[in-house]
């Protein structure tokens, strides 16, 4: 098996090359031209398709999960259609993009209520299942660890100004850089209650910030230049809070989806 690591192949030409079952990680194809490419059964994760043009393609039995903006299919921008349908299916989803303090407080109340139901559901599962991922996704406990990381990053660090708000069980996203001062032990196996104890503290932190949130604060910008992540200047405080809402909303859906898959698997004789 050939391996290409830390190589600059800018301008290289690949013609009649078989890359079946190959693994591409942290590879830049920016500006690349692809013609006659077979993506059948390909698994693509954490990919960026900004300003990508696909012509003469066949998309059949394809699943796409991600952020859609200005996605034009056969002359139709499908992003607003998808958004409208998702909001129709789950009306609370539209409340996750608030513009005023009361809207943020309402959104957080909804999220805490929904997560209470999810946690009640997961307590009916064997402990081992809480450490099992589905289709190479995070396990339920890893998902909670990541949400703890997200609230620490965007509220603890960016809004409250704590440069190192981390707990040793916090978990960044898989493709994140390996920061020296941010924990990332993906293989740790804490109990559900251990992770929930951290989560309660983080939820309280967010709830307290929202409880005192004013219109003036919401319109302000925050800066964090200490080493670590996020490291941003003049970031709208509103976007920090919206990031947390989005993480909480989307990852609960992923968790519920995977719990259903685990339930179905357990029924197979």
Oligomer: single chain
The number of E-state strands comes to 4
CATH architecture of the domain at 95-261: Up-down Bundle
Low-confidence stretches: none
**What would you report as the Rg, rounded to the nearest angstrom?**
21 Å
* Estimated structural class: mainly alpha
Order of helices and strands: EEHHHHHEEH
Please give the order of strands in the largest beta sheet: 1-2
Shape: globular
Write down the CATH class of the domain at 95-261: Mainly Alpha
Compute the separation of the termini in Å. 38 Å
CATH topology of the domain at 95-261: Four Helix Bundle (Hemerythrin (Met), subunit A)
In percent, how much strand structure appears in the residues?
under 5%
State the fourth-level CATH superfamily of the domain at 95-261. dinb family like domain
Number of helices: 6
Mean pLDDT: 92
Spell out the blueprint of helices and strands.
Blueprint (H helix, E strand, L loop, with lengths): L71 E2 L2 E2 L1 H11 L11 H22 L17 H18 L34 H20 L3 H4 L2 E4 L7 E5 H31 L2
Antiparallel strand pairs: 1-2, 3-4
Keywords:
single chain; 269 residues; mainly alpha; Four Helix Bundle (Hemerythrin (Met), subunit A); two-stranded antiparallel sheet; 39% helix; 5peptide_repeat; DinB/YfiT-like; DinB-like; Pentapeptide repeat protein
């Amino acid at each position: 098996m050939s391996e290409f690591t830390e190589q600059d192949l800018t301008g290289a030409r690949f013609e009649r090359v078989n890359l079946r079952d190959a693994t591409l990680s942290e590879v830049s194809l920016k500006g690349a031209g692809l013609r006659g490419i077979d993506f059948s059964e390909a698994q693509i994760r954490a990919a960026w398709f900004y300003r990508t043009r696909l012509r003469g393609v066949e998309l059949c039995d394809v699943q796409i999960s991600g952020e859609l903006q200005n996605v034009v299919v056969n002359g139709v921008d499908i992003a607003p259609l998808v958004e409208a349908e998702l909001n129709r299916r789950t009306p609370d989803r539209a409340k996750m993009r608030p513009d005023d303090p009361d809207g943020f407080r309402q959104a957080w109340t909804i999220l805490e209520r929904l997560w209470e139901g999810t946690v009640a559901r997961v307590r009916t599962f064997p402990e081992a299942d809480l450490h099992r991922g589905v289709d190479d996704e995070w396990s339920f406990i890893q998902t909670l660890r990541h949400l703890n990381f997200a609230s620490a990053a965007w509220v603890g660090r960016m809004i409250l100004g704590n440069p190192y708000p981390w707990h040793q069980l916090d978990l960044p996203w898989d493709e994140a850089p390996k920061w020296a001062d941010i924990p990332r032990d993906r293989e740790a196996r804490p109990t559900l209650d251990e992770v929930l104890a951290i989560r309660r503290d983080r939820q309280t932190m967010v709830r307290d910030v929202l409880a005192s949130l004013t219109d003036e604060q919401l319109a302000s910008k925050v800066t964090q230049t200490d080493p670590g992540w996020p490291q941003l200047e003049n970031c709208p405080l509103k976007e920090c809070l919206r990031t947390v809402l989005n993480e909480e909303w989307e990852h609960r859906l992923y968790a519920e989806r995977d719990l259903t898959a685990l339930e179905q698997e357990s029924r197979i004789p």
